[in-house]
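forwarding from the other thread:

> can someone predict this with iron/sulfur cluster?

sure thing
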Amino acid sequence: MSHQFFIAKNAAPEQTVGYTLRESRYLNITNRCTLRCAFCPKFNGLWTVQDYSLRLAHEPTPAEIIAAVGNPEDYREIVFCGLGEPTLRLYTLLDVVSQIRSRARRIRINTDGLANLVYERDVAPDMEGLIDALSVSLNAQDAAIYEFHCRPPVPGTYEAMLDFVKCARDFVPDITLTAIDGLPGVDINACEKIARQLGVGFRQRVLDEVG
Ligand code: SF4
């Protein structure tokens, strides 16, 4: 990963690696992010999402993540989520998935869609046969609004996210773009139209609600 991307410091001793919401098992494998979204709870001093404290004392090992999954068959879905960008640990994530794949009904990554930018190659083929679904944070209908809310570290990030979605369509069967309703300047209808034009799904999100 390029050092120019922001790396959040982890300090608290306790940690929640796995948590269950709506019959799905969510996995918190890093607190690092490529973006620094202004609306993100952690950049507003809040590390708790729906009563789960998601601040990590250390990034969990593959064995710790697998232990946090428990029995994959118990869940409707396994979701690599946050509070951070899971693909910043892509190789760990794929290692874990390869070990639980045969027992998991569905595996999804909630992502900023910037993995190709970070790894400087197309990583979407790595996901083939392992990842069932991607929820990609579109967040805005254009680069200016995206940059205002997500504060990317380098120019061209919005376009890189859209390019990743185009690449991933060939390797991940179910892709959904998301945007948060109510953020200033965000046009939900225009966001949905972008998803439609890309031939992927769209979901309107509510701020601070994990999904
Ligand atoms: S990508 Fe998600 S976790 Fe990272 S800063 Fe943005 S909202 Fe927060």
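Residues 33, 35-37, 40, 42, 82-85, 112 surround iron/sulfur cluster (CB under 6 Å). thats all i got for now
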